[in-house]
Amino acid sequence: MLKVRGLNVFYDNIHALHDCSFEVNEGEIVSLIGANGAGKTTTLHSLSGLIPYRSGEIELMGKSLRGVSPDHIVEMGMAQAPEGRRIFADMTVKENLELGAYTRKDKAGINKDLEMIFRHFPRIKERLSQIAGTLSGGEQQMLAIGRTLMSRPKLMLMDEPSMGLAPLLVKEIFSIIKDINLAGTTILLVEQNAHMALSIANRGYVLETGKIALQGSAGELVASEGVRKAYLGG
Known about the structure:
Blueprint: E1 2-11, E2 14-24, E3 29-33, H1 40-47, E4 55-60, E5 63-64, H2 70-76, E6 78-81, H3 93-100, H4 107-120, H5 122-126, H6 137-149, E7 155-159, H7 167-182, E8 186-191, H8 194-200, E9 203-208, E10 211-217, H9 218-223, H10 225-231
Parallel strand pairs: 3-8, 3-9, 6-7, 7-8
Antiparallel strand pairs: 1-2, 1-4, 4-5, 9-10
Helix pairs in contact: 3-6
């Protein structure tokens, strides 16, 4: 579904991603783990068309993304739930969700997807008319995920969904991510909480200073001594 080959990204003279190659197959949850500053968010922004890449290739369902604008990438079936949630704080919950469907014209389908989101996030339904900035951190994360789902992505990019959340809420969010995947959405998950990320993933990649350092099944990475020491606390 997604193939990344030899991706190189620069910020002026800083080489942020070095020949990164990885892939995500349809139906998978793939976790990209690494420390702060490893290049995880840069990777997602490159995939989403928000940051240009100097060399390499990104293909989504067999089509090159070189030069494709971010809105067209969403229309092609890939959308991102960004780090820090980035909800529209001065707008209502409902308006945030509606903006997630800005590339769509199928009103019946949009209403159907709203009901799907309410099933995943019943608390969001209770707060439709509430100003989004007044939601709790966990509710804002649910809204950010729901807003992304409103574009009906085939592949969903998720950037640090556990950031700033209490442990119980982290478990709830990751359970919902798994449910979204089981309902048919492929997921590329960027996450510092390596234990939680690998607990729901099929496969994973470890990113270190802009390079893919390790890859394998989730079980193989959990069993790796290097991964355990660096990311799993033991």
